């Protein structure tokens, strides 16, 4: 018992001495300051033999020797992580370049400006060689080009360096090349070819729906359509039956967004598969106006909900993309129409190849013809009321379509 008692006392003394021992504090470490970020800017011609005075090519180089993160304003690329990079400014102006550099002491950033004196004047060019009456070999000969896109008179496009253009229409037709000089920098050039007569083997020119749409080969200036604004005529609501009988307003759409937008326009379809709107005025729903044109819509859409949040008011906007465009006419395009028995459509589609569209903007450029007569046409497309996948605040645009909903627009031939 005494031995146990003495051991207990010794243990308590040891624990007490341990408790009195001063605690160790973390060692203080003095970190160095971040190495100041810095970079050089060199302005030069992109190619002195082509355009010696074209000082739009800029080389930036991080001189700190540490990891780089660049942000470029107005250049062909928005950002980069290279130590040394080349950027291109197509338009004159003063632009900011920001570098963030990571060193042992942390991150340091610096911002500088670069001034571009003139717009770029580097030309695009291509060769044309006629193969037969209706076919032409085209070759991109643009200096410095890393690629490009062709726009052919039959509405087709191509992205190879050399290709064959099919030109089946009588009269003058344009072949366009949008050449890419370096990544994100494009220069366009257009050349004209002349054909004496229409290609008798071009089945599009004799397609019954295409003839009703354009007037056919006998109407080279095309056929002009205007939107019908009568009651129960212009359907811009959910109409799963893809007809124009969906009820809209007792007197049609009379709001200014329609009157000053799509109603102020005319839409001409020519037999050489060129579409020409009268002007750039279009009608857009509130969310689309806010998302794509920066126009503040009435109400608050921030949580992406319908109904109580925000207004469905349509807005008139001016869209630079809404201009003359080639279009592709197809039949039996079932992947898009999803109407294999043609019980609700004609089975024909129109696809605009250059970002143009009918005068109702929903970020879509492909439409199906629901019905057509010599004087009236109903055109439809799939739609979703949301311009975003989640909310406008995140600026994330929807890339899917709601195939169970449709909008249709009714057109009459211009008197």
Subunit arrangement of the protein: single chain
Which residue ranges are poorly predicted, with pLDDT under 50 across at least 5 consecutive positions? Answer: 1-7, 9-15, 237-247, 300-310, 389-403
Secondary-structure-based class equals: mainly beta
What is the overall pLDDT average?
Answer: 77
Termini, distance in Å?
121 Å
What is the number of independent domains? 3
Query: What fraction of the residues are assigned to beta strands by DSSP?
Result: 35-45%
Count of helical regions: 5
Identify the strand order in the major beta sheet. Answer: 15-16-17-20-21-23-24-25
Helix content: 10-25%
- The counted number of beta strands is 25
Order of helices and strands: HEEEEEEEEEEEEEEHEHEEEHEEHEEEEE
Q: What is the makeup of the main sheet? A: 8 strands, antiparallel, barrel
Global morphology: globular
Rg, alpha carbons: 32 Å
What does this molecule look like?
This protein is mainly beta and 415 residues long. Helices cover 10% and strands 36% of the residues. The protein is built from five helices and 25 strands. An eight-stranded antiparallel β-barrel has the order 15-16-17-20-21-23-24-25. Strand 10 (147-151) and strand 11 form a beta hairpin. The longest helix is centred in the N-terminal third of the chain and has 19 residues, at 2-20. The model is unreliable at 1-7, 9-15, 237-247, 300-310 and 389-403 (pLDDT under 50).
